[in-house]
Amino acid sequence: MAKKPSPAAAHPIEDFPLQGLVEVVWTDSAALPHWTDLDTAKKDSHPVICRSVGFLVNDTPQEFRIVGTQSRVQDGSGVFHTLSIPARAVLRVRELAQ
């Protein structure tokens, strides 16, 4: 009995439209999720540093956009979990090995 080829074999990695995997370190706003007094709000609310990894979609002066997942199907391709980060919030971008 012949072994059935896997679906992945029909779509080599080179067939995917996005090849650039990157790590983005960026700053985001943060909020206290409850009522608090003013003195606590002054000292306990700080921006946070975030780290995101994805496939590079767009890099413009206004935004840096990545997606977490891409799919390849017979009628085209699709992406999932698009993240648009304001360019001014990006601290560092690093290309990751393929």
Structure commentary:
By secondary structure, this protein is mainly beta. The chain has one domain (17-95). Helices cover 7% and strands 49% of the residues. It contains 1 helix and 5 strands; from the N terminus they run βαββββ. The protein has one helix spanning 38-44; strands spanning 21-28, 48-59, 63-73, 76-86, 90-95. A 5-stranded antiparallel β-sheet has the order 4-3-2-1-5, with no helix packed on it. β3 and β4 (76-86) form a beta hairpin. The longest helix has 7 residues, at 38-44. The two termini are 36 Å apart.
Order of helices and strands: EHEEEE
* Backbone CA Rg: 20 Å
The SS-based structural class is: mainly beta
Give the overall shape, derived from the CA principal axes. Answer: elongated
Number of strands: 5
List the helices and strands and how they pair.
Layout (H helix, E strand, L loop, with lengths): L20 E8 L9 H7 L3 E12 L3 E11 L2 E11 L3 E6 L3
Antiparallel strand pairs: 1-2, 1-5, 2-3, 3-4
Summarize the entry for a quick read.
This protein is mainly β and about 100 residues long. It has one helix spanning about 40-45; strands at about 20-30, 50-60, 65-75, 75-85, 90-95. Helices cover about 5% and strands about 50% of the residues.
